[in-house]
Request: fold
Amino acid sequence: QVQLQESGPGLVKPSETLSLTCTVSGGSFSSYHWSWVRQSAVKGLEWIGRIYTTGSTNYNPSLKSRVTMSIDTSNNQFSLNLSSVTAADTAVYYCTRARLALAGLFDSWGQGILVTVSS
Amino acid sequence: EIVLTQSPATLSLSPGERATLSCRASQSVSSYLAWYQQKPGQAPRLLIYDASNRATGTPARFSGSGSGTDFTLTISSLEPEDFAVYYCQQRGNWPPWTFGQGTKVEIK
Reply:
């Protein structure tokens, strides 16, 4: 049974960079692509981007200029950096998994981490 | 970007009743439409994928239908644990993959 666990600071100051890591355990890492999805009261559920174990990435066009994702296959981890944050980036951030053959279908989710942007 | 519009926003029903939830896409997503269930304090859970396929562990009382722009999630007889928020999500046209705004199924 795969488990995904988000980690990182719960409070980020405006204009700074939000950095989160997702650690994956209990399942194959290479047969999937890995995404970040966030949820806020204003915007609902929003896909941020995905990364393959090769390091190849795709981002939501609305966030593309501020997002960078990376992956560490030796430790089964992937990360999200979101720069120049504002209060609008306050949300619960989830890491998710999708099978390579079912791209964009999120069959496993982490528990989520609340990130608040405030000074 | 594909916009998914769910209706109604809230559905008030009693246990044992049938629930019918709608999701309409701003343009065709073929059959690449999924449904997720979310309970308070939990992450969304995949229920239905590609319009009508139940995910592993999804009870048979959940069924999905539709194609193109109009989709339906039906819960044939509501159990107490089914009262939750339901989201549709499309993966037929990207980037980005998008979600609907949700339908809350509440106890009447």
